[in-house]
Amino acid sequence: GHIFLESFSPIYKQAHDFLIAIAEPICRPVNIHEYKLTPYSLYAAVSVGLQTDDIIKYLSQLSKTSMPAGVEDFIRMCTNSYGKVKLVLKHNKYFLETAHLDVLQCLLKDPVLSAAREMEGGTEVLEENISTKAHVFTTNNKPATDTAAPATEPATNAPDDLQVRDCCAF
């Protein structure tokens, strides 16, 4: 997960701008800069519009050596699930909205979310908005800010310093 950039490289400027967008700077002495890919840095990259395949493609093009498969797997794992679920507050209720049915099914299996489901007449509130194809899951409870998601097994090919644990693999 560590990336080293030579400041005397002919492609330094382009590589520096790209690495700032996808990785966290660790150490930047005069000649060699060190960056680290983290789930948060990759989230930031996706949130500004970078696509998973573009990140992998440009990182491969800028690298002197071939990129390990574990790094590519880590990038895919971190970026493919971002933006699939939105937390929305409507009428003093929190809603989880997603256009991905598989994500919704995974979320509904979570014990914390299952316990928070709103029921109407013994039936869970689950709507499908035909115009946007958004699946809506309703809860009356506020989202917990200090509870961690249940851990799952780490990615098989990712190096130890690139392990991500998340509630669902989408």
Question: Can you walk through the features of this model?
Answer:
This protein is an alpha+beta fold and 170 residues long. The chain is built from six helices and nine strands. It has helices spanning 12-22, 39-47, 52-62, 69-80, 101-109, 111-116; strands spanning 2-6, 24-27, 32-36, 86-90, 93-98, 119-120, 123-124, 126-129, 134-139. The strands form three sheets. A four-stranded antiparallel sheet has the order 4-5-9-8, with helices on one face. A hairpin with a 2-residue loop joins strand 4 and strand 5 (93-98). Helix 3 packs antiparallel against helix 4 (69-80). It is elongated. The relative contact order is 0.14. The model is unreliable at 121-125, 127-135, 144-156 and 161-170 (pLDDT under 50).
Which secondary-structure class do the elements indicate? Answer: alpha+beta
User: Mean pLDDT across all residues, rounded?
Assistant: 74
The H/E string reads EHEEHHHEEHHEEEE
Which strand-content bin applies to the residues? 15-25%
Low-confidence stretches: 121-125, 127-135, 144-156, 161-170
Helical content stands at 25-40%
Strand order, largest beta sheet: 4-5-9-8
Overall morphology? elongated
Characterize the largest beta sheet: strand count, sense, and whether it forms a barrel: 4 strands, antiparallel
> What is the tally of helical segments?
6
Spatial extent as radius of gyration: 20 Å
Q: What is the terminal-to-terminal distance?
A: 22 Å
Quaternary state of the chains: single chain
Number of strands: 9
